Amino acid sequence: MEGLAQLSPAFIPKVGTVTAGNSSGINDGASSLLLMSREKATELGVTPLAVISGLGMGGCAPEMMGESPLNAVSDLLRRTGRDVSEYERIECHEAFAAQYLACEKGLGLKREICNVKGSGVGLGHPVGSSGSRIIVSLVYELLQSQKKLGMATLCGGGGVSLATELTLC
Questions:
Q1: Rounded distance, CA 109 to CA 46, Å?
Q2: Per residue in 57-106, pLDDT tens?
């Protein structure tokens, strides 16, 4: 802990709080998704693991990009008529610990259901694969925990974001 406290701020010299110790690494990684319509799955005799049951989009000023999932989740909740408390598991992909904390506070998230197997800071940030990685992680966590309803959020550079609701089949 003492070593982490001595790390220099990455973005705002002397006063910043984001350091190499509370940020995600850039890692190699791979994951894949196979998406298709329900009709195509039936035609092929494929049983889906989950369906995308809701989608929200959001954005904010680039300098506040870490908080953009707040807007995407608000949009998702408006579109689905749900409350954030209805989700049984949440993957809130963060590149920085401060980003997760802002989302947790702004959305009223419960840590015991969020990123239960780790996320961006703990697992790394496989650039180009993060979106599918969090969806795959969420699906398998729902299966393992025998839960049904989950939400995944993803923040992109520049302040864009998505929130996806998944329902296990």
A1: 34
A2: 999 998 888 899 999 999 999 999 999 999 999 999 888 888 899 999 99
The mean per-residue pLDDT over the stretch 134-145 comes to 96
User: For 56, left (φ over 0), alpha (ψ -120 to 50), or beta?
Assistant: beta
82 Cα distance to chain centroid = 18
- Sequence letter at residue 113: I
Give the whole-angstrom CA distance, residue 32 versus residue 2: 39
Q: What is the DSSP string of the chain?
A: -HHHHTPPPSSSTTT----GGGB--B-----------HHHHHHHT---SEEEEEEEEEE--GGGGGGHHHHHHHHHHHHHT--GGG-SEEEE--SBHHHHHHHHHHHT--GGGBSTT--HHHH-B-TTTHHHHHHHHHHHHHHHHT--EEEEEEE-TTSEEEEEEEEE-
Query: What is the rounded distance in angstroms from the CA atom of residue 95 to the CA atom of residue 81?
Result: 29
Please state the pTM of the whole predicted model: 0.89
What is the structure's pLDDT at 113? 98
